[in-house]
Amino acid sequence: MAEPFCHHHRVSYAECTVGNHIYHSRYLDLLEAARGEFLRSLGTTVLSLQDADYIFPVIEARLSYKFPARYDDLLTIEVRPTLVERVRLNFGHRILNQDGKLILEAETFHCCTSRDERPKRLPPELVEKLKLLVAG
Length: 136
What we know:
By secondary structure, the chain is α+β, with helices and mostly antiparallel strands. The protein is built from three helices and five strands; from the N terminus they run E-H-H-E-E-E-E-H. It has a single domain (about 5-130), classed as Thiol Ester Dehydrase, Chain A. Helix content is about 20%, strand content about 35%. The longest helix is centred in the N-terminal third of the chain and has 16 residues, at about 25-40.
């Protein structure tokens, strides 16, 4: 199985609650940023795919919170594709803090559409790259 792509993020004060932990919905923003950097590592960008009339809306997300991330923590966000099929694309995610403590496990489920939101097959060149990385 291929190693996951890793994106690093330092927790900002703006992402935290008064209780000094990341507000729960902000994790979705972190996952989105990591997926964007993952695609960049494959030689493409979200914008270039959008310009070619491919978008990947999230149709479902499952997040399991394990431990709070706090202001100034350095997080490692792991991303790996878990499913690549015709118009479906799923990603598995894990977030760990600088001590290796598991913060969050998540899976996001996407469909590929055109910008007018009609289902569309995944771009073949992207499928080729992703299939090599799909988790067992």
